[in-house]
What we know:
The chain has a four-stranded parallel beta sheet with strand order 2-1-3-4. Helix 8 (196-205) runs parallel beside helix 12 (239-255), helix 12 (239-255) runs antiparallel to helix 13 and helix 16 crosses helix 18. The protein is globular. The protein has helices spanning 17-23, 36-39, 46-65, 77-88, 102-118, 140-149, 182-193, 196-205, 211-214, 221-224, 229-234, 239-255, 265-288, 312-323, 329-341, 346-359, 364-374, 380-391, 404-411, 416-421, 451-467, 469-482, 490-498, and strands at residues 2-7, 28-32, 91-96, 122-125. The longest helix is centred in the middle third of the chain and has 24 residues, at 265-288. By secondary structure, it is mainly α.
Amino acid sequence: MLQVVWFKRDLRWQDHAPLSHAAKHGAVLPLWVDEPQAWAQSDASPRHRAFALGCVRALADWVNVHGGQLYTPRGGMLDVLANIKARFGQFTLLSHEETGNAWSYARDRAVARWCADAGVPWQEFPNNAVVRRLATRDRWSALWDTRMKTPPRAAPDDVRFANMTWPAAWMTDDRDGSCGAAASLQRAAQSHLSSAHELLNSFLQQRGQHYRVQMSSPLTADTACSRISEHLAWGSISIRECAHAVWARRTELLALPLEQRPAGFLQSLKSFEGRLHWHCHFIQKLESEPEIEWRNVHRGFDDVRNEGALAPQEQARLDAWVSGHTGYPFVDACMRSLNATGWINFRMRAMLMSFASYQLWLHWRQTGLHLARQFTDYEPGIHWSQCQMQSGVTGINTLRIYNPVKQGLDQDPTGEFVRRWVPELADVPQAVIHTPWLVGVPGYSPPIVDLKQSTQAAKDVMYVRKGQPEVKAQAQAVYQKHGSRNPAREGRIKTVRKVPSSPQMTLEF
C-alpha cells in the first residue's frame, strides 16, 4: 500500500520516525502541503514561510538525490488528501504528532475525521518528549529522559519512492513573492548554507564555550548561542539529535586532562542541556491545555488587563512598543533588532514582554502576536507559555518585572548595541545613553510612560491579586497540571518554577 509521509514542522530526513517506518512498508510518497490558511493566521508571517520554504527546498533536494520527488501542493489538506486518494486509491498516512496553534489543532482534527470516513489509516509518531494525553506531570521528566536516550534514527537509505510526476500547477511556486520580502528570503537561504548540524557542531566545539555567561547580552549572544532555534522550530533538526550531540561533546571534554579542558565549557553544556529539557516542558503545557494560546493559565487574572478593543492611549503604547519608539533606548534597540533580523536573545525577549505587560500594561495576547510574527523560531507551545509567565498570569511563577534602564546598563554598558539600532542616539554620551531624557535628544521620543510610576502601579495590582486566598488556591491546581517536578532535577525545577527561563516565546538556545 502507498505510504504517504506528511511533513509538517518536521522538515528533515534524519531522526524522522514516519519516514523510517514508511520506508519499510511500501512505496513512499513524501508530502508537504503549502496551506494558505496556515499563513493567514494572526500569528504567522512571511518570515515564517520563507524559512519553512528553505527547509522544504533542502528536503526536496534530499528526496531528489534518492530518486524521488517531494509533492508540495498548495491548498487545503483535505482537498490534497482527496486528490491523492482519487489518483492512487487506498493509502496509509504517516506523520509526526504536532503541538501547534489552534488552527493546526483544528486542521488535524479535521484530517482525523476525513481519514476515518475515507478508511485511510493515519499513524502518528511522537516528535519529541511531548506526551499526548499525559495523565500527570509527576513522571514527565523521566519520560523526557527515556525518549531522549533512544539513539536518533539515521536517514533511511532504502526508500522506494513512488514513481510519479506531478503537474506543475499542483506544486508550490513562490516566484510571486508570496513568501515574503527579499530580506526574509535572503535570511532563509543563508540559514541553509549553514545547516542546523553545522551550526550545532560549531557551537559545541567552539562558540558555546562561554554560552552560560554570554547568552544574556545581545552583544555576545548572537555568536555564543547555538542559533539552532529556528531549525528546532521548523524541525530540520530534532531535540534528540541535539541531546545526543551534547552528551557526546561532554564525554569528549571529560576525557581530556583537567588542565586541557576549555574553561567553562562543561558548565555551558549543562545550561544548554537544561534548555533542551525546558523546550519540551513548555510545549507540553500547550499540548495539555490548548487554550493557553488565548486564555490565562490562571483564570483568577482574567480581568487584570484589557482583553478587548484598545483605548487610544493603549493603542499608542502598543504602536510605540511594536516599532521601537518607547523612549527607552534598550527596549527600542531590542525591538528594532528583532524586527529587522527575526532573532534576539532570551533575556531581551523576556524584557520586551515584561515591559509591555507591566510598564505599558498591555495584554499578553496582543503583544504576543507581534512577537510571534517576528520570531523566525516561533514555537507556539513555548511562546504562549512564556508570554503568560512574563506577564504574571500563571499564578505559579514569581513576578519578574524588568527595569529596562538597569538591563541596558548591565547588558550594554557602553551603549554599543543601542547606538547600532537607535541611530538617533549615536552621539549621546555613554553616561546617559540609557537615560537620554536627562539631557534631551532632538529626534528621539521621550519616555512613553514614567518608569517608576508604571512599575509601582503594576506591582500594586499584581501582588494584591496574587495574594488573594482564592487565587492562591487555584494556583495549586495550575501547578498540578503544568508545574515541573522531579526530585532528581531539583535545581532545574526551581528555576523553571520561579524564573522566566528562556527567550520569551521561544527558548532560542
